[in-house]
Amino acid sequence: MTPIQERPRGIFSSVRFLLTDMDETLTFNGRLAADTYCALEQLQQAGICVIPVTAAPAGWCDQMARMWPVNGVIGENGGFFFRRENHGHGLNRSFWHGEQSSDIMPRLLSTGRDIMRRIPQAKFAEDQAFRLTSLAFARTGDTALEHEISVALADEGLNTTINNLWILAWTGTYDKLAAARKVLEEEYETDDATAQQSLLYSGDSVNDAPMFMHYRHTVGVSTVRQYLAQLPKAPAWITDGPGGSGFVQAARAVLDDIDIHKLR
């Protein structure tokens, strides 16, 4: 990883999509700062397509897609994409599992309750009621217990990952990367080769690993250092600050490089 301020000037001049993790990348200690919100708006005003790619529940993503200065939200680690309608206040919603999505949650919840009977310390996250495609167990701070929960979920045939807030589980052959590629192709007619040049991803945690591995332009906010041992590939660049302050630094780097390109 190289500090982002040491990047070659203009390296981000071709960036047209900025995809980003939310929890502890846009936020810090669970709060969204005004500077971070303004950075999202400035990116949009500059013509950058901004899409949070998050493990957050559908209830949160609905609000973000409706009210935030973003072009859409990929939520629950790839289970869906919500995008505000071009006119009016409604949302366009597309799900990885399509018409079968309504059948997913009853099966997941049944599995989750069975695991809680077997592992009494396991508890659903407070936001589980707002999810449509995933199970979220609360982090416990006990590494061995969290591993036990993850193994139990995997033994049930579910995909699992752990981020800052949740032990997450879902069914289906997707993760953040698969969902991002699908959205780019179907919603923005952008193939993977083009995205390698025109997309920047920012994140901070283990479930960002597929994005860090795949894309050329990747930025970790400073707290990513605590997860480096668990990441197959580190992000290319790192910010000075954690959470939202780090994201603001990344956003300004993109905006500065675009301005340099315009002056040429």
Model description:
It is a single chain. By secondary structure, the chain is an alpha/beta fold. It has 2 domains: 2-96 and 174-263, HAD superfamily/HAD-like (Rossmann fold), CATH 3.40.50.1000; 99-170, Hypothetical Protein Ta0175, Chain: A, domain 2. 37% of the residues lie in helices and 18% in strands. The protein contains 8 helices and 12 strands. The strands form 3 sheets. The chain has a 6-stranded parallel β-sheet with strand order 1-12-11-10-2-3. α1 (34-45) packs parallel to α8. The longest helix has 21 residues, at 243-263. It is globular. The two termini are 29 Å apart. 44% of the residues are buried. The model has no long low-confidence stretch (mean pLDDT 94).
